[in-house]
């Protein structure tokens, strides 16, 4: 994962599962025995539903080793290392960051990251139709920060990173990352027993929340959620220095999104994303957690009388024809972490948005 998105971290993981079945032996008397012997059985207790903190830290240590090696390669404009650490949205983000650095001939000594876990959700058995994953809460620090990427520059709040299967605690690859503001509600506590599959009502409330979250990204409306501060930040993303600060209120940002990985690009507001890789779910106490990944076209429209300016080198990477005029469309990846309680309004507790390479170039 590129250093620009690595701050305080909580990690979502997908892991292989090893299940041990205990053999049962029964004892008993023959026909002449009047009192049967008590059968003896050996049993293995069911596995804990969550990764232990020690297991989570082992996963992170191995991930850091591969990610730091990829960061070092990318410092020389070589993106080939990223696939050993990241996949999905994060891999797409990594590759664009490296392409932009190369286009700008931007070089810095590579940083090194160290991740530590403080808690874990899931990760022991399948939690949705896509397989096993877990949410690991922790933090990430830079062991050798550069002037432009300092460990002390991290904002208040929490960041969540997602990973998918490796072998035991090795080889897990990250597929997403979301950040929560400091005032975001805490996640509900992890379950203490193996969760059952989502019930029909739980699936419906999650599906409704996913659709409403896609609408919120598109139009900014958050009345369906008890908390959704990250939506405002996502919709304000992208202007940089292209429009003067005093004119931002008159500028417009519009998102048209599909589920990540949907080649047909069915609008996320109406598509059935639950049950696809675009929505990963697991149960917490009294709620369902959902990580939503969207592949969006973000159209930025400048106020009347202004035009959007882009560095020609960046425009080439992003496939934008210059001059742009008042409007430009870029490909953006949006991720949201939803908490959908069994009772009450859902919340969008964390999110992220970042530009990725044009479709077909990633």
Strand content: 25-35%
- Mean residue pLDDT: 82
User: Helical stretch count?
Assistant: 5
Main beta sheet:
5 strands, mixed
Structural category is alpha+beta
Question: What can you tell me about this protein's structure?
Answer:
It is a single chain. The strands form two sheets. The protein has a five-stranded mixed beta sheet with strand order 2-3-1-4-5. It is globular, with a radius of gyration of 23 Å. Helix 2 packs antiparallel against helix 5. With 362 residues, the protein is of the alpha+beta class. It contains five helices and ten strands. A hairpin with a 2-residue loop joins strand 7 and strand 8.
Explain briefly what this protein structure is:
By secondary structure, the protein is an alpha+beta fold.
Keywords:
five-stranded antiparallel beta sheet, 20% helix, 5 helices, signal, 2 domains, 362 residues, alpha+beta, Lipoprotein
Q: How is this fold's topology laid out?
A:
Blueprint: E1 10-13, H1 53-74, H2 88-103, E2 113-122, E3 134-142, E4 158-164, E5 173-180, H3 200-219, H4 229-235, E6 252-259, E7 279-284, E8 287-301, H5 312-318, E9 327-341, E10 347-355
Parallel strand pairs: 1-4
Antiparallel strand pairs: 1-3, 2-3, 4-5, 6-8, 7-8, 8-9, 9-10
């Amino acid at each position: 994962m590129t250093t620009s998105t690595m701050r305080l971290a909580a990690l979502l993981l997908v892991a292989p599962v090893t299940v041990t079945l205990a053999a049962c032996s029964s004892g008993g008397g023959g026909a002449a025995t009047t009192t049967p012997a008590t059968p003896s059985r050996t049993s293995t207790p069911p596995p804990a539903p969550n990764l232990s903190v020690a297991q989570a830290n082992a996963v992170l240590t191995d991930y850091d080793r591969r990610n730091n090696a990829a960061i070092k390669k990318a410092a020389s404009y070589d993106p080939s290392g990223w696939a050993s650490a990241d996949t999905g949205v994060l891999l797409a983000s990594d590759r664009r960051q490296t392409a932009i650095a190369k286009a700008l001939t931007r070089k810095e000594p590579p940083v090194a990251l160290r991740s530590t876990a403080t808690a874990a959700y899931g990760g022991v058995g399948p939690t949705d139709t896509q397989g096993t994953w877990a949410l690991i809460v922790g933090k990430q620090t830079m062991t050798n920060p550069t002037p432009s990427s300092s460990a002390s520059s991290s904002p208040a709040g929490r960041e969540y990173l997602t990973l998918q299967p490796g072998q035991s605690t090795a080889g897990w690859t990250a597929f997403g990352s979301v950040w929560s503001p400091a005032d975001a509600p805490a996640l509900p506590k992890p379950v203490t027993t193996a969760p059952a599959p989502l019930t029909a009502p739980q699936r419906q409330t999650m599906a409704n929340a996913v659709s409403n979250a896609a609408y919120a990204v598109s139009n900014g409306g958050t009345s369906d959620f008890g908390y959704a501060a990250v939506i405002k930040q996502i919709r304000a993303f992208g202007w940089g220095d292209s429009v003067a600060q005093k004119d931002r209120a008159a500028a417009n940002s519009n998102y048209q999104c599909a589920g990540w990985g949907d080649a047909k690009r069915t609008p996320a507001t109406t598509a059935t994303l639950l049950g696809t890789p675009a929505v990963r779910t697991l149960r917490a106490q009294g709620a369902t957690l959902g990580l939503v990944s969207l592949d969006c076209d973000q159209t930025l429209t400048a106020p009347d009388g202004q035009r959007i300016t882009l560095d020609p080198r960046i425009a080439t990477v992003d496939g934008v024809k210059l001059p742009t005029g008042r409007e430009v469309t870029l490909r953006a990846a949006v991720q949201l972490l939803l908490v959908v309680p069994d009772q009450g309004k859902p919340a969008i507790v964390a999110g992220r948005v970042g530009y990725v390479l044009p479709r077909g170039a990633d």
